[in-house]
# Entry
Amino acid sequence: MNGGIRMSIAFYKDQFIPVNQAVIPIDERGHQFGDGVYEVIRVYNGKPFLLEEHLLRLESSAKAIQLQLTHTLPELTTIILEGIKLAHLDDAEVYVDVTRGIAPRAHLFPDVPSVLAMTVRPTRIIPDHLRKTGVKITLLPDERWTNCYIKSLNLLPNLLAKQRAFSTGYYEAVFYKEGLITEGSSSNVFIANQGKLYSPPLSKKILPGITRAKVLELADRMSLTFQEAELSIQDLHGADEVFITSTTYEIMPVVQIDDQTIGTGLPGPVTVSIKEAYENEIKQVTNKSLA
Amino acid sequence: MNGGIRMSIAFYKDQFIPVNQAVIPIDERGHQFGDGVYEVIRVYNGKPFLLEEHLLRLESSAKAIQLQLTHTLPELTTIILEGIKLAHLDDAEVYVDVTRGIAPRAHLFPDVPSVLAMTVRPTRIIPDHLRKTGVKITLLPDERWTNCYIKSLNLLPNLLAKQRAFSTGYYEAVFYKEGLITEGSSSNVFIANQGKLYSPPLSKKILPGITRAKVLELADRMSLTFQEAELSIQDLHGADEVFITSTTYEIMPVVQIDDQTIGTGLPGPVTVSIKEAYENEIKQVTNKSLA
# Structure
């Protein structure tokens, strides 16, 4: 299609389009209500990583808001693979959303088809040194709704928290609710104490992270003990090691929480071993060559 | 422009467009995050009602999420009045939103201009008999975020509640949080007891309704006593009268809450007098002829 030149590309409704093309009218329920669900999928070496897991979660999110997906999961897979191919990108980020369609604005669900939107573009660069030296995070109150297990397009509280973290010198905002850690504005949280891994239990309060689940699988393979546990702010401050996970962050060590240094101030051994195992997993699954 | 034919019309960025025109790319922060604020303004007799109040609230909402409005309030007024004129509509509904613009998807605020979107269309018909006989509402837990005083595009919990109310035979969902009434999915709540009016206090938990404020002003003029008061579920069930207010509903009597009849099962005298005063206010301000 484009002679092999790397490019960003989008898909809307039923066709591939240039990524900046105006395709959405004002009366679209994503735009007016955030009435939709989404996923972000990383592509390494031209291959989408953990695609099936992401699509299954998209399906769960849609079901939770009584939204009919536009395509079957095999059809979505075909569209995503075609998009990656058309974009000629090895290292890419696929964004997919499904909204409750286009209809004159009214709260009640309209009797119109849902709409699929997708972009495929070069991945946001997370400087590799950050994953080596670790990042600083800030703790903020969790002001979000009670159903954060749904990956919906209602992301304003997450944006405000991320922006506040950034503007005060932190890389990510991690939320607490009634004194207990929930998750980051776009990540899950883990701690390690005496070689053992802990993370808040899955509940309606947090997203069931795909990277989180992969970490648990890797920990199991590495015979690392993992336990779901409610973590207090004090637990985080006093932890030997802290890291956050997401599709984009992968495994990101945390070395400072607000003005408190964590552990030695360097990524600890459990974090580093999980990080290496995750990177190896990517390489094995996608045949990605060593960096 | 259109020879006086009634029509819907839209405005996007800096020009008037057909209401269904695709103008928004996928990478728009309203669509992807609900990252914006909005207002709905009723037009009676070709005149927008309480326009200044709505624009001031739009400004407050924008400020609360650190969003720069695209236009000054006088400029917005001009665009809205021009839209109403172009649409040739006497009875209309103006929807205005401002989003944080168009940029490759990332949580942090991009350095791009905000974008204005507007639609002007015939108002949704609320059958007049409903305002005469009253409606049934259902009480649902308030699952929304903690900053509902901001009129943002994150409306998924409101949609889900409204849809649930509708699908179980109710006209509106009214929320409670920790046993106390907050507001409806798109309305404020009032009760009357022994001729006295009560409504939950303004706080971060509820929208400062424009119609709510007008009701207070009218109550004052009518020498009706009003008091801001935390209302329990029991207070609602036991009230002499209940009504809900919004720009679209205006003053809507509530005669049943779940399976419990309120008062006599008919709109009570305080509700009716407020409703008549509100309708008179519309007529006086907009020179609307009597129905």
